Structures are given as structure tokens and as C-alpha cells.
Amino acid sequence: METASGPLRKTPLNAVHRELSAKMVAFGGWDMPVEYSGLISEHMAVRQAAGLFDVSHMGEFEVKGPGALAFLQRVTSNDVAKLAVGQAQYSALPLPSGAPADDVILYRRGDAHYLMVVNASNVEKDLAWLQGQQPQGCELVDRSDAYALIALQGPKAQAILQTLTAIDLPGIKYYHFADGPVAGVPVTVARTGYTGEDGFEIFTPPEQAADVWKAITAAGAGQGLLPAGLGARDTLRLEAKMCLYGNDMDETTTLVEAGLGWIVSLSDAKGDFPGRSVLAAQKQSGTERKLVGFEMVGRGIARHGYPAIAADGTVGAVTSGTYAPYLQKNIGLVYLPAARSAVGTEFDVEIRGRRVPARVIPTPFYKRAQ
What we know:
Alpha-Beta Plaits; Gyrase A, domain 2; 3 domains; alpha+beta
């Protein structure tokens, strides 16, 4: 299979997906599974039991050396100094406009050793941008080919994974990680994810990824575990109101507009970074528009790009929209004028030439019981 830019890349688990008769699609230059048994069954398995995802297409950069912390403080939005060894942090690579070049997760692996996970479609762009910020006293290396990444998500994830490892999984707090063997394979297990459920993301050597995948599948047999594709990954993250880069935020939306002001640190210890003054002003004075969640009042599913028409005639566009399998209703995200973004505000979504009413509701749409 090829795209205009050449052949699609394959993750180390590509053969496994094809053995499982997954429906494969092109995504960010990769040949990826969109579904196996069906989007709704996979979505519900994650909410009620567990789902297993291949996210090996994500990119990984290593930043290492005595100047690593200072460099990362200059190029990210969050306060990297808060990270202890073994802790992870959600952050972004802000541009001078206050918009993100990407959203990222940073893992502090040692005193001067960090791993940054970036979105698959942004690997080359992010690497070039970071190199352009002139890292000093540290080494910046693209290590994407050194990792496969498997996500095990859902309320039974811990119980399933614990049968395969001596790592104390209950001892790994949210957004922390530990190294050790899973099914005899040396891995890093992080308590992170993109579904709104508890679970883990497992960094494995590429050549042993299939062994880890199959071991988890066997351990989850009889527990309701299902392999899950990109389709369920998207509906799950939207129910949890987790933004998708390229849809809900991009280089035209600031982090504060996207509701991500909480990953923007303005502390003196953090220091300066691109867009700091813009984001500081927006955090203090507000923004002209906001990313809000909505449910459809009329019949129809709002999709990415569909026009959204506010009461004052302002026209925006739906950034993400779907039928939410767990909630059993049609939901979405949209940028609305701040003055018309309060919960309960009604507006219209144009669906194939029809104006269908929608209503702003609180987010996240779904939040798991603790």
C-alpha cells in the first residue's frame, strides 16, 4: 500500500494485526488497524474490561546530558523541573503565537535523561523544530525506531498485566513509570493512556513486541480483553475529552483556547519559552473563543469540519464529533465565541445541508469511577 509520499510504514505488530484480520487503513503515513471485531464492541471492552492497542507509530525523542533540563524548559509549556525520576508529564511544544507545534508526554528517565513521545504525523516536523531551538549541553536523538508501544487500557488492565510481571503495578502512580520484565521481555511500563480509563502504555523492543502482545492477549482470555483499533481509540478519547492534535488543536489554536492552560506554567522557575507572553495574557484576561463540548439535540452525527453556527451568526467548525458508544448519544467538540460558550448554550451544526440543533454540555463527557 502506498500514499502520495511513498509506501506506508509498518509497525512491528503489522503481521499480528493481519493474522487477526484487522481492517487496515493509512494513518499518518502508517498502515494501522482501525478495527478488529467492530468499533462499538472494542470501545465497550475498554470501558468494561480491557482493550489492547498498537500505538507503535508514535515518535520518541531522547534528550540527554547536563543541559537537558534547561533545554526542555525553553521548548515546552509545562514545568519540567517538577518531574521526579520515574515520573511523566503532559506538555506541549509552544510556538511564539501560543499555539502548539505538538502536544507531547515527557518521561524523566534519569537525572539528565528524558524521553519525549510525540504524535506520529509530527515526528519530522517536531524534530526539525527542536533542533532549530539549538539544544545546548545535551543530545537530542530521534529514537522512534528503538521502541514499539502497546497500550493496555480498561478496568481489568492491571489485573491482566500483573500476571505477566513482577513489577508492582499498584505502586505505579498515574503518570509514573517503572522498568522491568513483562512476559520475560525488558520493558518500560507507564501508567498513562488516551482512553479515559486506567491502564498502561508499554515500551518494548520492536523485535519482541509481538511476544508481549500475544502474552497479554493470552492473559486476558476469558477476562473480556479485545484488541482495539484506531476507531475505538478515537471514540474513547473523545468521550474523555482528550484533544487530538490536528483536529481539536493545531498551529491556529492557542493552548489556552484549547482548554490546555493547565499545562502552561508561568512560574519564575520555569523561565521563558515561545508564546509565554501571549499565553500569560490569555490566562489572565481570557480568550475570544473557547473549545467546548456539545451534544446533538436533533438527529445526526456532527463530524470534523461540519459548520457550527452560533446564535449571533458566527460560523465555526466542529473539530471532533462522533456517536459515543458508552454514552449512547452524539457528541463533539467545537470552538465557540467565549461569550456564547456557557453550558446550556444552543447552536446549530450543519449536517449535509440541514441545520441541526446542538447544546453545550460539561466536559469531560465521560469520567470513570475512581
